[in-house]
Design brief:
279 residues, alpha+beta, Endonuclease, Chain A, 3 domains, 3-stranded antiparallel β-sheet, 37% helix, 26% strand, elongated, Glycerol kinase
């Protein structure tokens, strides 16, 4: 056989490894073997080192071929050992996969797409690999396991998990910049922000009586209240007054207590679905 006959295309390489062509090109790009230039795949110096070459065809034009031995290359065969999904990252960080994906979206590394997640160029730069569920065709992204050591990811994770640091005596700063009165309110605000839900804080109720809701969701006309400690008689009196106003004027409201915070990831989306907002 000639050297040329011992080479295979990237699509043939994908088939040999049991992957889709799209996944194969994305993995090779993440490995730094190829790059996209003017809507064409080009070899990098690293790809040339791995013995990638160009082949010209009247039917397909110029495309890249690889030595057939590359099917046994460690970087391609053992990718699953080096990568994990949002669920895997969640297990390492103590957050649900949905929240991890929203944090990654906040960083600009993925965007929502067809009930799943689409990798961006910024996510590719972090080593993400676009994949697709074999049974549902829903897109998702595989990430290097070492992403948990990434400075940007760690900072975003800490912002969310620690519910932000106290900046002044007046309150706590949420991820979207809102200044709130407690860590509990910050947790709710961060959840709404990462879920992409438009919300206002300390929104005046549309009444003659003076009263402010903790949060307001204009998309569905819903108020959210977090009831804190009831040890203060004046706080308890204000709580009862506001509850009476919601009931008297028929305003839609959902309420949370201190004990609900540990289950916020389950309770908040469940409550919002009752008002027609899927998240």
């Amino acid at each position: 056989m000639t050297q040329d006959q011992q080479r295979i295309s990237t699509s043939a390489l994908a088939k040999a490894l049991g992957k889709s062509s799209r996944q194969m090109f994305t993995e090779l790009e993440a490995l730094g073997w190829i790059k996209r230039v003017d809507n064409q795949w080009q070899l990098t110096s690293k790809g040339e080192f791995e013995q990638g070459r160009y082949r010209d065809s009247e039917r397909y034009g110029r495309y890249i071929v690889w030595p057939d031995s590359v099917v046994e290359h460690r970087a391609l065969v053992n990718t699953e050992d080096q990568f994990t999904t949002a669920k895997g990252l969640g297990l390492k960080t103590g957050l649900p996969a949905a929240r991890i994906n929203q944090l990654l979206a906040d960083l600009g590394w993925v965007t929502p797409w067809l009930k799943g997640w689409q990798l961006t160029s910024f996510g590719t730069a972090q080593g993400g690999i676009q994949k697709e569920d074999a049974s549902t065709a829903i897109p998702y992204v595989s990430w290097p396991k070492k992403l948990t050591e990434n400075a940007l990811f760690k900072r975003s994770l800490e912002q969310f998990k620690e519910a932000a640091a106290v900046e002044t005596v007046t309150g706590c700063r949420a991820m979207d910049g809102h200044l709130l009165r407690s860590d509990a309110e910050v947790k709710i605000d961060n959840w709404l922000y990462l879920a992409g839900i438009s919300h206002a804080c300390h929104k005046p109720l549309p009444l003659k009586e003076s009263a402010h809701a903790d949060f307001y969701l204009p998309q569905i006309g819903l108020y959210i209240e977090f009831w804190g400690s009831e040890n203060d008689p004046s706080y308890l009196a204000e709580k009862m007054r506001k509850k009476a106003l919601y009931e008297q004027y028929g305003l839609a409201v959902i309420e949370f207590q201190e004990s609900d915070l540990a289950q916020l990831e389950e309770l908040l989306p469940r409550q919002l679905r009752r008002f027609g907002l899927a998240c």
